[in-house]
Amino acid sequence: MNLFDAAESDPQLAGDQAKPLEAKLRAALLKAQYERVQKADRSLIIVMAGIPGAGKGAAASLLNEWMDARHIRTVALGEPSEEDKAFPYFRRYWQTLPAHGNISIIFESWHQRLFDEAARKKPDQAVIQAHAEAIRHFEAMLVREGIQIVKLWYHLSRGAQKQRTDELLANPDTAWQVGPEDTKVWKKFSRLRDAAALGISLTNADHAPWCIIPSADVSLRAITTGQAVLSALRRHSRVQSNPSAVTEEALTVRPAIRLENLKYDATLDDQEYDEQLAGWQARLANLARSKKFQRLPLILVFEGQDAAGKGGAIRRITHTLDARQFHAIPISAPTAEERAHPYLWRFWQCIPKPGHITIFDRSWYGRVLVERVEKYAKPDQWQRAYAEINHFEAQLHDSGALVLKFWLAITPEEQLKRFREREASPFKSFKITSEDWRNRKQWDAYAVAANDMFARTDTPACPWHVLAANDKKHARVAVLEHIVKAVEQAL
Q1: What is the pLDDT of residues 27-60, one digit of tens each?
Q2: What's the predicted TM-score (pTM) here?
Q3: CATH says 249-490 is which class?
Q4: Are 55 and 87 in contact (CB under 8 A)?
Q5: Do 249-490 and 5-234 have the same topology in CATH?
Q6: CATH superfamily ID and name for 5-234
Q7: Is residue 225 within 8 Å of 63, Cβ to Cβ?
């Protein structure tokens, strides 16, 4: 039996059946929506796709009418703009994710390029499989983070599609609803149907199911849409993580980096420091102002123990740059809005466009460092985060970004010395807090977490640069040298 046989039979709903069903359905939808809003522990994405001219827009409008539209956002992204193409493909979808308690209705979803490729006369099967794999990964991660997904495919027979298009065109009041692609669907209906069947089969999952909506009859389309959304709102299933499997997937084969193996005695005297710092800064300044750099997004990530000198290293970088060209972001505990989204959401908002630089003072690695050690994240959350982070960074790299990750490492004795200096200095006392002293007591736990992080996220495309920083001058020069050489190679 064909996936679309039932929908292409163009079933009808008798007029006297529709009204009582609609009244009952509207009440149930509102109740389920308000329960979701009050709990604010999950959100819902409704993906609307289908044969052009099947009535997706009307269905979305009806949902906004039946439910409380204040908690619904309808997003129609259309074709990617030139700016969109300068970023990873999924970025614009990350930007539209609903906060917990809310609903998003999305047209032109992340499935579109899969359907488009499958509908070509000579589709590339490798590209199709790659798109499908990326979609499965994206959706599974969203569901694990508390976002439900229901995907609706609106379908009708070839004849019904042409008839509906002709009727809409014949009426000046509805002709605007028909796009150029709608009038050509009947000519390539079989190819579009086969492409849809393939795309749906490759991306259907219990946690993110596809539902076929018969669309020839307006009333049946409305009722079936409402029932699918109601079922999703009432469903409580999530993707079950297999932490060990995720961890193994993320393991790399590069030589292991371990903090205890670092040599912390490297130093520079004042003259060496001044000369080398000025030289590397000048090279970075020239690179950042070059024509070729306008095509490169640069992402710098700084992690390390408290008082390791991250801020000082960042200032030596920004000193050489045009302030309009970079954004330095200190990452602290997430806000209420950020907690209402998947943990990577706030970092997707800050990805630089080509020719710009984003510098993260702390980063997404907080999930496997402070959140792990302080038990803010559950074990299954931080254990699966290694693979999720690798996938995130791979998307950045594949879109053309240069991602450089630095860990500035100091010994416990050097940290204590710097803490004491900060307490005694009127200009630095604000830098030392009770939290710093509390974190110091967890030194060994943080070292274990950092070593695990290196082992699982030190990838060939986005490697870790772990630098001994007992001597601040040596560390600052080393950071600049790494950046300059990596940018020169990238250009």
Answers
A1: 999 999 999 999 999 999 999 999 988 999 999 9
A2: 0.89
A3: alpha beta
A4: no
A5: yes
A6: P-loop containing nucleotide triphosphate hydrolases (3.40.50.300)
A7: yes
